Amino acid sequence: MTSISLAVAEGTNAAAGGFNPMNLILLAAFALLIFMMFRSRQKQKKAQEELQSKMQDGARIMTNFGLFGTVVSQRPEEKQVIIEIAPGTQVTIHSGAVARVLEETPVVSDDEDTN
Question: Where do transmembrane segments lie in this chain (predicted)?
């Protein structure tokens, strides 16, 4: 037999019910991909919920586009947050644009370090 007819014969045997380990490897890789996609989405959702719980009126926040401000009010039904970026200057942003809530850190002056 020629090499072409041997390849066809082997392909026919595998398709007829022979065990092909490549199918198992592809199935496992596909299952791993699906698992990782769902896991990543769950982590993102949990992080977003945690961010929303920290974002109360008066909290200092940073947006995705680098704007810092203080939360004045929130409109959860419209997914909007009103922040004050300067005294008397308020802007309305989408709540999804909030990157993080800034933690207040105590400022240590030089006088306290020398004691």
Answer: 20-38
* Nearest C-alpha neighbor of 64 from the set 48, 43, 41: 48
Cα–Cα distance for residue pair 82/46, rounded to 1 Å: 23
Structure tokens at 97: 């644009």
For the entire predicted model, the pTM comes to 0.56
As given in the structure block, the two tokens for residue 43 are: 């982590």
Q: What is the DSSP string of 69-104?
A: EEEEEEETTTTEEEEEEETTEEEEEEGGGEEEEPPP
| 24-64 residue pLDDT tens | 999 999 999 999 999 999 998 898 888 888 888 888 999 99
Residue type, 49: E
Confidence at 84, pLDDT banded by 50, 70, 90: very high
The CATH number of domain 57-104 is 2.30.30: yes
**How many helices (DSSP H) and strands (DSSP E) are in the chain?**
3, 5
CA 28 to chain centre: 25
